[in-house]
């Protein structure tokens, strides 16, 4: 294009989706001296909406382009809308963010509230797409022109009011770059708490459960509470550990999540305030890359009520995340931490993205985002991985 004034033509085709629509339109436009400025396409329930913005030199015979585009629409039995404007060479506003909304169900009022908050922060929604409709509905928006921290705070308040989950993340290709996922185990990767399952075998479940609850809320020092609970297991036959391993139930969607991430070349780690005698089995079963946990002391086939080695506590989890990142060659900014209790706070805050999963209030407030639906694989959507991608990958592997 020369230095002459530029104008734009926006062509919008709407109608039944079928192969070849996009190709047919661009083949027609190729016969004219146009420059493609922007393209957006979405398919909703088999209905295609295709928008193409082209620019041209003022004075060009745009009527021929207009007529050609209308012929394409008529041939395809689609509706067409055309509008011209002056190309002011405006740039998309800075501050690109991904806003992910999870709901089960997701109601119009929630979307209205989220969109209203985005607008109130002076931001613009550039693109909207669906990542999943089952078991939860997940909608992702590309947003520009907002301060991330201010928008995150505003949307967190709206999410609580609308009873949906909302995540705000920086935009860019890094979302789909190689990442390290570091996850808590008890009440996150698995259902329940291992130490309580052991306590049930030892006949001291009520005592241990009270201490566990206080520690998860952050009311008690984790290391002290752990040693106190483990002491109650003294004298328990070590065979109870085998029984507990057999009783473990993964969180809903856990196996799908780990399998999908591994298939996409993510590194996966677990870090637990529980015990290696249990987490090692999870590592083998799920193909987990890295793990860290405490180790129960066992003598003569009996649990002594003590722990050997350093304790994996709140600070220890964050240290483990940093160590795993170094070993995996992944920058901290590319790490994702997932947890539910106060013992996970340092890890969640150290990671590039901290996710509170069905967590205590203190954890939800401190994390970057929260997921409150009982499906661990919904975290995939926060990473930009759609339900269709998961199903396609499973089909390729014969799952």
TrEMBL record:
SUPFAM superfamilies: ACT-like, HAD-like
Involved pathway(s): Amino-acid biosynthesis; L-serine biosynthesis; L-serine from 3-phospho-D-glycerate: step 3/3
One Pfam family per UniProt: HAD
Needed cofactors: Mg(2+)
UniProt keyword list: Amino-acid biosynthesis, Hydrolase, Magnesium, Metal-binding, Serine biosynthesis
ACT domain location: 10-89
E.C. designation(s): 3.1.3.3
Keyword Metal-binding in record: yes
Keyword Coiled coil: no
Reactions performed catalytically: O-phospho-L-serine + H2O = L-serine + phosphate; O-phospho-D-serine + H2O = D-serine + phosphate
Family to which this protein belongs: Belongs to the HAD-like hydrolase superfamily. SerB family.
Name of this protein: phosphoserine phosphatase
